[in-house]
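Shape matters. Shown next:

___
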Amino acid sequence: MRVVTTLPSGTELLASLGIDPVGVSHECDFPPRMADRPAITRSRIDASASSDEIDRQVLEAETDAEGVYEIDCETLEELEPDLIVTQGICDVCAVDAAVVERAVDRIEPDPEILSTDPSTVGDVLADLRRIGRAVGREECAERVAGDLAERLETVRDRTPDEGPRVAVLDWTDPAMVAGHWIPELVAAAGGEYGMADPGDRSTPREWAAIREYDPEVLVVAPCGFELDQTAENRSNLTDREGWDELSAVRDGQVWAMDGHHYVNRPGPRLVDTAERLAEVLDPERFGSPPESVAVPFPALADLDRRGERQSAGTVHRPS
């Protein structure tokens, strides 16, 4: 079966079943070999811009008939897909099903479209099983889903009954508290997540509400940002009134996490995210997280300076 995906999480779900898509999105970079596949999508957003500028561009694109993303219909037709895996959860994070349907109307093949719309960890595992059925790997999907659930339960079993107040931000200007699967992952890692319930959408929050909640651990993981781009935009938070008064700041418990790969993709690596969060919350029990995934917030200043010297011109795009 020839499968095309329009989002990184779909590509990762397929890869976990032993299926390599013949075409992917411009964002698909894991497993690393996927970066060599033909890309059928493009973004109209300058993803190297600052957080507030990206937010402005997205808001403008959402009011434009063309939207945030476009599909390369010529390449899509050349790939002759039998199945396209897309999504309906967020038209900012990736190409959505409506855009795919319009593109399919313009090409000669008539592929099946499978749209994912996960809001919880359970939804992600259900999507894995749905994709497994669609590609004839149902037994494999059941096995992989079971292994992922078991790993998540292993993390949960090792954590104490009570943990620190945690907030995860998946954007910084405006400040947005991560929802969807993040409350479940934080709970599995041993934290209390009081600003969103499992399945809630990520939404902008007044800074005053975050100050009132006063997280004891704050994880900054902007959507589409790896650590170097979070470093470039760290002043979105550090310049805010009352930043130094937050318990997490006073106690040195503010962490930057690679949101691009570990927070915003509803795929198999969400279990990795739970494991990394457990390391952030309880390093004595779980060990320290890899520096490629999460670093204490003050370390971003050095990371930003290294990025200026070594990685000028690198572009990261919202996922």
The longest strand covers residues 166-172. Residues 3-117 form a domain with the Rossmann fold fold (CATH 3.40.50.1980). Residues 47 and 317 are 4 Å apart (CA to CA).
